[in-house]
Amino acid sequence: MTKREVISRYRGSFLGLLWTFINPILMLSIYTFVFSVVFKVRLDPQNGDHDDKFAFALLLFIGLILFNLFSECLSRAPGLILSNVNYVKKVIFPLEILPLVSLGSALFHAGISFLVLFSFMLIINHPVEWTVIFLPVILLPLILLTMGLSWILASIGVFVRDIGQFIGLILTMLLFLSPIFYPASALPESVRDYLFLNPLTLVIEQARAIILYGQMPDWGSLILYYLFAFFVAWIGLMWFKKTRKGFADVL
Q1: Apex CA 187: angle with CA 189 and CA 179, to 5°?
Q2: 108 exposed, middle or buried (CB, 10 Å; 0-12, 13-18, 19+)?
Q3: Which of these, 2, 26, 164, 199, has the minimum number of CB atoms within 10 Å of its CB?
Q4: Highest mean pLDDT range out of 23-27, 193-197, 199-203?
């Protein structure tokens, strides 16, 4: 179903699945040109990071990859059951896997974007640090958190149709309240702690640390994040199973 989801997105287009590579390549090229050439944004050296002109574009692209993974799943979640009514009424189907299908598609596109990122880093001679092997460890709690929220939103979306519009507003706010267009270190210390209440902040900062700066993950913070993500995923699944009994009546 994930494979069908990915292929159906590009069915009928001339370039087909090549768009999965073209989109991130174009976006990374635009970010590099705008922020490195036009605005000439530079970052302060951090743990041996030479102040190269591509650093800000790389920082921005990593943040957007993770945000898009989170955003794609949550923006589609409220309509998942509504767009698959036949699975509710006509067949016996494990509806809880529908958010997994959406997540699989988002992970596929995120994987292609990371491949483009690492290829670009090699082209510009930016070191690809060995700590990048910890990337799956950084992504897993975000995946768990995304799944839990997707189950909750998919269920609520059946009963409250306005939730889709509301989530769109929340995701727009998160785009600017997450350290995507800036590193968390750029904020005053009095504000910085509040930024970490955002569920995306820790993942984005840790991904940048292991990919760009060769730093080890912050294991203490990650353990707490894992516990929180497991709790949200468990609550989300239980909520979905409890409320799915009423889907057929409403639809």
Answers
A1: 125
A2: middle
A3: 26
A4: 199-203
